[in-house]
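Hey team,

Filing this mostly as a record. A colleague (T.K.) asked me to run one chain through the structure pipeline before their review meeting, and I want the input and output archived in the tracker in case anyone asks later how it was produced. No errors, nothing strange. Just documentation.

Input sequence:
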Amino acid sequence: MSSGNFYDSLSEQLAGLLSGERDWLANTANASALLFMELADTNWAGFYFLYGDELRLGPFQGKAACTRIPVGEGVCGTAVSTGEAQLVEDVHEFPGHIACDAVSASEVVIPLYRGERCLGVLDVDSPTVARFTAEDLAGLQAFAEVLLEHSDAPDVQWR
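Output structure:
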C-alpha cells in the first residue's frame, strides 16, 4: 500500500472513530492513540494546545513530554509562530530544538487552525533520522483536517 492510500485509510478510520462525537479533548485523545497505533516507527504522537503565548501538553501517546513550550521555541513553537507545518529530518540540527525525549531524531508538526485562530499543534516524533517525508506531511495535514472537521473548538484562553 502506498503511503497515500495509508493516509487515506487513516483519515477514514479517524472519521469513523470520531463519528457522533464533537468534544475536542476526547477527539484529540483518540486521534493521538490512532496515530501511535498505526504510524510505524514513531515514539510520540500527540497535541499541544495554545494558551496565550505558550503551548501546553494535551493528549498524547508515548513517553512523558515537555509540559509547556513557549511560542517561537523548538519545532512546535516555531510551527505556531510561523503558521507553517514543520518537517524536520534531524531535530538535533534544528536551531533551538527542545529535547523532551533524547531518543527522538525526526519530527513533523502541524499547526491546527480554526479560521484565523490557532488552537495548537499536532506533533509526531520518530527515533529515526529522516523518518518523515513530504508525503507524510501531506497525509498528517489531511488527518488534522478530519480532526478539525469533526470537533468543536475548545473553550480555552486564546492569545
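Quick notes for T.K.: The CA atoms of residues 111 and 121 lie 4 Å apart. The domain at 3-149 is CATH 3.30.450.40 (Beta-Lactamase).
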